[in-house]
Write a structure and sequence with these properties.
With 240 residues, the chain is mainly alpha-helical. The protein has ten helices and five strands; from the N terminus they run E-E-H-E-H-H-H-H-H-H-H-H-H-E-E. It folds into two domains: 7-96 and 199-237, no CATH class; 100-189, Homeodomain-like (Arc Repressor Mutant, subunit A, Orthogonal Bundle). The longest helix is centred in the middle third of the chain and has 18 residues, at 77-94.
């Protein structure tokens, strides 16, 4: 099946993408609560799913395919990004409002890299722990404890790429010890911290025109895996 657009829901595991050597398009990375606003669907229903966004009840009906065609028809990237900005702003204004308390709690988790206790987070926004967990699952997809795990992993990934050792990284990020870090890293990325850092130092895909590994400037989000049967694979941890 060929899709003009793909929506990847929140997940705690890595994803492997494959293409034949040429790939073009626009990837929109958004805060989970922004996805809730755009599509109006409880995000716990989209956990670990990759689906055609036209199957989602977004605010203006089934128009993602039309948007993809309009973007492809424009001659410059500047015009494409301009159209995308206009459409996303319009859809956000017409969409299901996210709870300001959810946005506040999510922002605090992001600011602290998942270090704030869930009880403290609930007290901060004026909810019970149960209320926070329910609204998080609805508008973030993951519960606050699981979201905190992902954010700690993000921080660990960044520190390892900066050259920090595993023991130091584990201590900074709040893991019990180096073994705890390694177990969490493997569970969410499919490789050990050592395998990840080694692949970053010696990327296996070096041919001219090979795609950049990272999907965000300054963030170690991806690994390029060795081509298989003329395909290029990118292993990513979808964490936001």
């Amino acid at each position: 099946m060929t899709l003009a657009a793909v929506y990847a829901g929140p997940t705690t595991t890595s994803a492997v993408g494959e293409h034949s050597g040429r790939l073009s398009g626009i990837e929109v990375l958004m805060a989970p609560w922004a996805s809730f606003t755009l599509f109006g669907t409880p995000l716990y229903e989209l956990i670990d799913r990759t689906i055609d966004p036209d199957d989602l009840p977004h605010v203006l009906g089934n128009t993602i395919r039309e948007l993809s065609a309009a973007l492809a028809a424009l001659p410059t990237w500047e015009q494409r990004f301009g159209l995308l900005d206009d459409v996303l702003v319009r859809w956000s204004e017409a969409g299901t409002p996210s709870s300001s308390r959810v946005v506040r709690a999510w922002s605090e988790l992001v600011r602290t890299w998942g270090a704030v206790p869930v009880r403290s987070l609930a007290d901060e926004v004026g909810w019970s722990v149960r209320q926070l967990e329910n609204r998080f699952r609805e508008q973030i997809g993951l519960g606050p404890k699981v979201a905190a795990r992902v954010l700690r992993l993000q921080r660990a990934r960044r520190l390892l790429v900066q050259g920090r050792g595993q023991a130091e990284t584990a201590a900074i990020c709040g893991f019990y010890d180096q073994a705890h870090l390694s177990g969490e890293f493997r569970a969410m990325t499919g490789c050990t911290p050592r395998e990840f850092t080694m692949a970053r130092v010696v990327p296996p895909v070096s041919q001219p025109g090979a795609p950049a590994a990272d999907r965000m400037t300054g963030e170690a989000t991806s690994l390029l895996l060795r081509p298989t049967r003329s395909a290029v694979f990118s292993k990513t941890g979808r964490v936001r």
